[in-house]
Structure formats: C-alpha cells, structure tokens
Automatic annotation (TrEMBL):
HAMAP family: BADH
InterPro entries reported in the protein's UniProt record: Ald_DH/histidinol_DH, Ald_DH_C, Ald_DH_CS_CYS, Ald_DH_CS_GLU, Ald_DH_N, Aldehyde_DH_dom, BADH
Pathway(s) of this molecule: Amine and polyamine biosynthesis; betaine biosynthesis via choline pathway; betaine from betaine aldehyde: step 1/1
Native source species: Fulvimarina endophytica
Modified residues (Cysteine sulfenic acid (-SOH)): C283
Protein name as it appears in the record: Betaine aldehyde dehydrogenase
Catalytic reaction list: betaine aldehyde + NAD(+) + H2O = glycine betaine + NADH + 2 H(+)
C-alpha cells in the first residue's frame, strides 16, 4: 500500500521538495507498512512558505468579501466531491476506520469551509456616533497565521484552522503532525484549485523544530496550535516573544456525569462515543465517567456487553468500528496506562490488552477497555491517555460529582446525562469546561464555538467566536469640527 505524495510540501501554489530535510516516515498503523517518505522543511522551505504567504495575503486582503467567500465555498464543494478518496487517505494516514473517516473528517472540513464562506461575505465593522464626531471600526486580518496540527484529525484540523483564517483575510502556513503528514497536502491542493492566490495556504512538514521556527518567524502574526498540554506552553511562550496572537487547542481529562434518572442506553452510548470513537484519540473525550450509585452496577454490566460487541479490525473494511491506534509508540503508551491501572487497584471490566489473532498481529491494536472502581488519585484518572480506555467512578450526590469532576487542571469538555431538565442546566453551568453536552457527547458542529478553559487551552475554534481570534479591530475617529486644544 502506497500513498506517496508528489512532494513533501505545498508552497506558493505548488508541490516542492528539498531532500536535505530530515526524513519523515509515514507508517500505516494497521500493518506497520511504510506508505510514504517525506522530508521535514529546511530553513529555505520555511522562508519560502512564509514569504509566499505574506505576498498572497497582501493580495487576498484586497479581494471583495464575496470573492473570498466564493473560493472557500468552491473548496468545500471539491472536498465533498472527493470525499471517498480523501477519507481513504485519512484512514491510511491515521489508522482510523473508513466507517468513521467517510462521515467525520473531510466532510467536517467541508462544513467548516462552507460555513466560514458565509461569514467571509458578511464581515463588517461598526459605526459609532459621537455627537458631531463619529467613529467606525474596520475588521482587519492579522497577516500570516501559522497553524500547527495534532495527528488525530489531520484533514479536519487543517480545515478548522484554514477556514476562519482565510475568511478573515489572512494567509496560513500549516504544519501537520509529523505522524500524519499526508492529508493537509490535499487540503492545500484543493484550496489552490478553488481559486485562492498562490501561497495563500501552504503546508510544510516537520517535527517540533519546524513548528518552533514558524512560530518564531518575523512574518508570523498568529499561531494556532492543536496539540498536547506539554507543547502548548512552549508554543505560547514563543509566541509571546513576538507579541503574537494565539489559539491553543490542547488536551483534557473530561468528565461525564450520569445520574440515576438518565436513560441508561443513551448514557452508555454517550460514554462509548466519548471514549472509543477514533480509538479513543480525541481531545474532548469524557474519560472520567461518574455514575450515580443507584445505577452503577447495571451501567457497568450493560456497558461491558456493548463494548464486547464492538467490531475491531482492518480500517479499510467498512464493517470495522475500531481500528488500531495511530502508531506503535502510542500503543506502548496506552499499554503502560493499562498496567498502571491494574497495579493501582482498578477493577478491569472489559478489554485490557492487545486483541489476539492473525488480523491484529501486525497492527497497533488495543482492545476497548473499561475500568471500574477507579479512584480520583489513580494515574488513569489524572492523565490524558489518548486511547480507548474508560474509567468509571461511582458517586452519591450532585455536589460530590461536581466537585470531583472539576478537580482537574484541565477544562476542555464535559457531559451530563439526566432526565431532570433543571439539573442538566444547573450542572452544565457549574462544570469547568469550554464545552458541555447535556444528554449528548462529542458533537462538534462547526456552527458552535469549541475550545478549552484552564490548562486545556485558550481561544475558540468554529462558530462566530473564531472571528475574534483571526482578526483585529482598527478604530477610526473622525473629527468633524475645529480641534479643541488648550494650547
Ligand atoms: P503534540 O503536542 O506532541 O504535537 C502537536 C504538534 O505540535 C505537532 O505538529 C508537533 O510537531 C508540534 N510541536 C511540538 N513541539 C513544538 C514546538 N516546540 N513548537 C512548535 N510546534 C511544536 O501533540 P500530538 O501528540 O500530536 O497530539 C495529541 C494531543 O493533541 C493530545 O493531547 C490531544 O488532546 C491534543 N488535541 C487537542 C485538540 C483540541 O482541539 N483541543 C484536538 C486534537 C488533539
């Protein structure tokens, strides 16, 4: 199986290569096969990307809003037309099952480009009457934005950053994760084909060093990072050196609260979606599931039944529901958490190891796993695992559940399952998280803002809120009378 792109980078509207860059090996994690070899960007490629972005941005900012909107809209249409091929590539890049990628990745990217196409056409400033004088505001682009991606949603992350950035009149240089370098190149190709000026959206490959070089570049006006809580502060600090704008989409350890009166099946569906989708590699996953004592054992029993029925397998098989993790290194990490859970006394309910059989022998597979009777201090209760590992905790009262749910440095997401309407809203209000779901989990339509509080991040992606993070206001005060001066 091969997925070798034309070249490693897409800069100035064309594929470019510089073989002097460090090798990036792209491995299909279901088989261990190398499917592509790319090169990290050299300083020359970085310079070319940043300067061509600056040139394209100056041109793009002069376009009428409706002309900019048309390009984004066309890009969305092309992505939808090519959904099958893009989804297959996403599956190879990440190991996620085609059953998921066909509905959740390129399509989500297209939704985002389409939605921000409408926003692009309607952006405007305000007018402020000041007696005889008046003032107005102009919403201006920031300039060249740098996007840095994680490996779990390579197409979606590229689009979620490109769409608002371009809608506001910026250009972007995007660095995908070195684990999943392939999909963003397709996004760049499509945005160019849709009619964007050459260099408006560039993709350069590389490890952390390339990300750091982009963040520290003189032409960089803003950095949007999707990554871990360890990388976030480093990028934030580097951006601060140049007084650059930031958006930080980082990790979490989000809680789901299931009350006695909840629909058991819906709560279990929410918990499974929020722990096993994308083989558990989702930042907003609800990995701490607090279940009220009255339904605790029933919840576990039914959850185990449903978890055992999940179909693990080869990701390109449309019947497969869970594929391997993104890499063998990630599987080692998840396995070390499974070991710590057992050593620290958690009760294994289902899963807990590597699935047996020929079909799984060569891939980075791990069974969807549930631990019960987890205590708040255990390692699996405190650290982000980024694998299909659910921790279930019993609780007695609403107050207790809230205080335990909030006792974490993270604050990306949270969920509550209850049939008591007022309790749903009361609990959502008190949960410390950027996004809360009531009787649902992990839904992230592009129309609503997404992002974290506490150590999970800063700023918001999607929704109108994203505009604030990709533009700035200029105020113009117009004096209509004689200048009053004491001198
Ligand atoms: P990571 O932090 O290791 O890497 C993220 C990106 O940052 C990569 O492209 C990497 O090359 C780059 N990078 C590393 N060091 C850098 C530096 N010093 N300067 C600039 N760039 C640097 O994260 P990962 O392992 O690729 O992704 C998993 C993490 O991402 C998880 O913690 C997950 O929760 C988080 N995530 C968050 C969201 C969100 O929207 N909040 C979405 C997806 C993933």
């Amino acid at each position: 199986m091969k997925a070798q792109p034309q070249a490693s980078h897409f800069v100035g509207g064309a594929y470019v290569e510089d073989e002097a860059g460090e090798t990036i090996t792209c491995v299909y994690s279901a088989t261990g096969e190398t499917i592509a070899e790319l090169h990290a960007a050299t300083p020359e490629i970085i310079e070319r990307a940043m300067t061509s972005a600056a040139r394209a941005q100056a041109e793009w900012a002069e376009w009428t809003p409706v002309a900019r909107s048309r390009v984004l809209r066309r890009a969305a249409d092309i992505i939808r037309e090519r959904n099958q091929a893009l989804s297959e590539l996403e599956t190879l890049d990440t190991g996620k099952p085609i059953q998921e990628t066909i509905v959740a990745d390129a399509t989500s990217g297209a939704d985002c480009l389409e939605w921000f196409a409408s926003i692009a056409a309607t952006l405007s400033g305000t007018s402020v009457p000041l007696g005889a004088d008046f003032a107005y505001t102009i919403r201006e682009p920031l300039g060249v934005c740098v996007g840095i991606g994680a490996w779990n949603y390579p197409t979606q992350i590229a689009c979620w950053k490109a769409a608002p950035a371009l809608a506001c009149g910026n250009a972007m240089v995007f660095k995908p994760s070195e684990m999943t370098p392939l999909c963003a190149l397709k996004v760049a190709e499509i945005i160019h084909e849709a009619g964007a000026p050459a260099g408006l959206f560039n993709v350069v490959q590389g490890f952390g060093k390339v990300g750091a070089a982009l963040t520290g570049h003189d032409l960089c006006a803003k950095v949007s990072l999707t990554g871990s809580v360890e990388t976030g502060p480093k990028v934030y600090a580097a951006a601060a050196e140049g007084m650059r704008h930031v958006t930080m989409e980082l990790g979490g350890k989000s809680p789901i609260l299931v009350f006695d009166d909840a629909s058991l099946e819906d709560a279990i569906s929410g918990a499974m979606l929020g722990n096993f989708y994308s083989t558990g590699q989702i930042c907003s996953n609800g990995t701490r599931v607090f279940v009220q004592r009255g339904i605790y054992e029933r919840f576990l029993e039914r959850l185990a039944e449903r978890t055992k029925a999940i179909r693990l397998g080869e990701p390109t098989d449309p019947e497969t529901q869970i594929g391997p993790l993104v890499s063998f290194a990630q599987r080692d990490k998840v396995q070390s958490y499974l070991k710590s859970a057992t050593e620290e006394g958690a009760r294994l309910v289902v899963g807990g190891g590597v699935p047996q059989g020929e079909a799984f022998a060569k891939g980075a597979y791990i069974e969807p796993t549930v631990f019960a009777d987890v205590s708040d201090e255990m390692t699996i209760a405190c650290e982000e695992i980024f694998g299909p590992v659910m921790s279930v905790f019993p609780f007695d009262t609403e107050e207790e559940a809230l205080s335990r749910a909030n006792a974490t440095p993270f604050g990306l997401a949270a969920g509550v399952f209850t049939s008591d309407l007022t309790r749903g809203h009361r609990v959502a209000k008190r949960l410390q998280a950027g996004i809360c779901w009531i009787n649902a989990y992990n839904l992230t339509p592009v129309e609503i803002p997404f992002g974290g509080v506490k150590r999970s991040g800063l700023g918001r992606e999607n929704g109108k809120a994203a505009i604030e993070f990709y533009s700035q206001l200029k105020t113009v005060h117009v004096g209509m009378g004689p200048v009053e001066s004491p001198y």
